[in-house]
Write a structure and sequence with these properties.
about 350 residues; Rossmann fold; seven-stranded parallel beta sheet; six-stranded parallel beta sheet; 14 helices; globular
């Protein structure tokens, strides 16, 4: 197939990944190419040059409009909208068999655009006003919508979901997150360092449980870092930086427990399955899809209960490392995810071809 992948533009689709959306889109592009598809990545122009990139905007907008995401800035909105509108026009004229839309833009969801090319849209966020109406109005033949978890589907469609909405769990390549049969007794946390990711809760729980903790990831919210995280560093609590690839996998894999601390309705939790693939069980907060992702591979507690999370850390240390690894191999591998993507592509193509 000739496949167009349309990405979110806040960060480049390149390692080290700024977040799950970038990792998701990179893995999708790389995996589809490995399966013999022709892939064009419509993303920020400074994304990974190993892909055939058609730039939506010249550079990711966190560079050109720093700190303005979610601020309602009119200049940023106009910049992004102009890029997506032109990219959608190029996709419509580009002879693509299918578009996989991973953006957060309303423009690919317009009915006139959906009529131009069979489309699969993957939702990576809870419903919010700027997108909700367009998603609900886009349920037409030739368009399939996926969510990353049953929990996310219930938030978007509290009643019975439409038939062309399905759950598509994220997947990872287990070879990139190699299994280790033992940990070193420490805790690890990985992700975007921002209030919604609850980094401060991981620190407080590790301190109460008496375990050393290493934090990894980009510092997205500097004020939050300065006020809630940086003052706690030192001794058993350290920041390991923003790593990628084999280096991050080794650091995560050598820990004995992974702390997963979402403070919002986390649609999935890619960092959790990355740790689980390495054999690291999860102690975390029961928000969003956490229970669906972690399952028997960890212990989850109610939000904001530091004492309970500290207790859960101790309980999690008793889980054999084979358990989280086996859960990933059964449910969350890249190959399983890509097979499901290919099936969705075939479905939307067939819908368009119906008389």
């Amino acid at each position: 197939m000739r496949i167009a992948l349309l990405a979110h533009l806040r960060h480049p689709v390149a390692a080290p990944f700024a977040g799950g959306m970038e990792a998701h889109c990179w893995t999708l592009a790389e995996g589809l190419m490995a399966r013999g598809h022709e892939v064009v990545l419509f993303a920020a122009g400074d994304s990974d040059p190993r892909f055939a990139i058609d730039p939506v905007i010249p550079v990711h907008h966190e560079r050109s409009f720093p700190g303005l995401e979610h601020r309602g800035d009119s200049g940023l909105k106009a910049h992004v909208d102009a890029g997506y509108a032109a990219a959608c026009d190029r996709i419509a004229a580009g002879g693509f068999d299918v578009l996989h839309n991973n953006s957060l833009s309303r423009l690919p969801l317009e009915r006139r655009r959906l009529a131009a090319v069979p489309t699969v849209t993957s939702l990576h966020v809870p419903p919010y006003d700027a997108l909700r109406w367009f998603v609900h109005e886009s349920l037409v033949p030739g368009h399939r919508i996926t969510v990353t978890s049953e929990a996310q589907r219930r938030v978007w469609w509290p009643d019975a979901p439409p038939e062309n909405v399905s759950v598509l769990h994220n997947g990872i390549d287990p070879r990139a997150w190699p299994y280790r049969d033992r940990g070193d007794g420490s805790a690890v946390w990985s992700g975007r360092i921002a209030p919604i990711k609850g980094t401060h809760l991981a620190v407080a729980a590790a301190q109460r449980a008496g375990l050393p903790l290493t934090l990894f990831g980009p510092i997205e919210d500097r004020e939050y870092w300065d006020a809630r995280v940086a003052p706690q560093l030192g001794g058993a609590i350290r920041y390991g930086g923003h790593l990628s690839g084999d280096t991050l996998a080794k650091e995560v894999g050598r820990a004995s427990v992974f702390l997963f601390t979402p403070c919002w309705d986390e649609p999935f939790g890619l960092v959790a399955i990355e740790a689980m693939a390495c054999g690291v069980p999860v102690a975390g907060i029961m928000m969003g899809a956490a229970a669906e992702v972690v399952g028997e591979a960890g212990y989850l507690v109610p939000p904001d209960d530091i004492s309970a999370l500290a207790v859960a850390i101790g309980e999690t240390l008793t889980i054999p490392r084979e358990v989280p690894h086996a859960r990933v191999m059964r449910l969350f591998t890249r190959d399983l995810w890509l097979e499901r993507c290919e099936a969705l592509y075939a479905q939307v193509q067939a819908q368009v071809k119906r008389p």
